[in-house]
């Protein structure tokens, strides 16, 4: 707990993001501490995925600062926001890994190659070392026996576990999960959640997850953040936000989700 108190690890400070005239993040302030597991919930279009995409530098911002560890990922220049020079940027980017709803595995590569490829290409480690790393990860996600399979031969839950192993092969400190269980059958969701939970407790990752599934938020989150129209409306422990929301808008969102 001391770490959580001491280290703001990711900070969004007065971040504004628009797509044309559509203001998606409005002076967003969000701090995530090291080893915290934060889950973003909220209506469609509230800006949840945009927060993850800004952290991955897949999207730019118009204003504000985003810090990761000691470094500025985005720095407010007074006339927009800029990223650091490539070397500094790469050092920050390497701390972060993301897993997507749609798995995004390479269909023409075996499971082993899917996991080992980025360490070889990006980290320039030897193929033998990358394969060893990949095998250990496949074992930890329960897929050791599938290393020679191709993605099409796997179930959705298995493909998502490969995607998680692939993300971990780059040894990130921060894991971003964007609706990673949304495309799965209800029985398979727990298979993937179990993997995330056990990896998280073993390796002390900092986790930021987006989900529409409140039971997933409850299982993974130390903190749940409810966003609406690019603003944080309410945040707190899963019990507090999901069972005893203080804000009317959180209440009506949860009512609608539970009735759906
Ligand atoms: N590349 C883009 N160009 C234009 N508008 C975009 C783009 N990406 C997202 N948007 C819009 O920005 C808003 C926020 O999108 P975002 O994906 O962050 O929301 P979300 O809360 O994750 O939604 P969902 O729960 O449906 O995934 C939406 O209205 C979306 O249509």
UniProtKB/TrEMBL annotation:
The keyword Transport applies. One of its GO terms (cellular component) is plasma membrane. Keywords: Amino-acid transport, ATP-binding, Cell membrane, Membrane, Nucleotide-binding, Transport. It is a peripheral membrane protein. Pfam families: ABC_tran. It is found in: Cell membrane. This is Amino acid ABC transporter ATP-binding protein (PAAT family). It comes from Bradyrhizobium macuxiense. The lineage of its organism: Bacteria, Pseudomonadati, Pseudomonadota, Alphaproteobacteria, Hyphomicrobiales.
């Amino acid at each position: 707990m001391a770490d959580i108190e001491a280290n703001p690890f990711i900070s969004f400070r007065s971040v504004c993001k628009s797509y044309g005239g559509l203001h998606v993040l409005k002076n967003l302030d969000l701090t995530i501490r090291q080893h915290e597991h934060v889950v973003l919930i909220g209506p469609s279009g509230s800006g949840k995925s945009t927060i993850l995409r800004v952290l991955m530098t897949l999207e730019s911002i118009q204003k504000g600062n985003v810090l990761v560890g000691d470094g500025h990922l985005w720095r407010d220049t007074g006339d927009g926001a800029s990223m650091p020079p490539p070397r500094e940027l790469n050092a920050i980017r390497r701390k972060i890994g993301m897993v997507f709803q749609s798995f995004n595995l390479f269909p023409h590569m075996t499971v082993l190659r899917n996991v080992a490829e980025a360490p070889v290409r990006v980290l320039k480690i030897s193929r033998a070392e990358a394969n060893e790393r990949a095998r250990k990860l496949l074992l930890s996600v329960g897929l050791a026996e599938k290393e020679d399979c191709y993605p099409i031969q796997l179930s959705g839950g298995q493909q998502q576990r490969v995607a998680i192993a692939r993300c971990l092969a780059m040894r990130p400190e921060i894991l971003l999960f964007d609706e990673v269980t949304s495309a799965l059958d209800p029985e398979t969701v727990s298979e993937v959640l179990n993997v995330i939970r056990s990896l998280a407790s073993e390796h002390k990752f900092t986790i930021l997850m987006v989900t529409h599934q409140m039971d997933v938020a409850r299982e993974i989150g130390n903190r749940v953040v409810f966003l609406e129209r690019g603003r944080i409306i309410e945040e707190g422990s899963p019990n507090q936000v999901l069972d005893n929301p203080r804000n009317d808008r959180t209440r009506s969102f949860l009512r609608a989700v539970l009735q759906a």
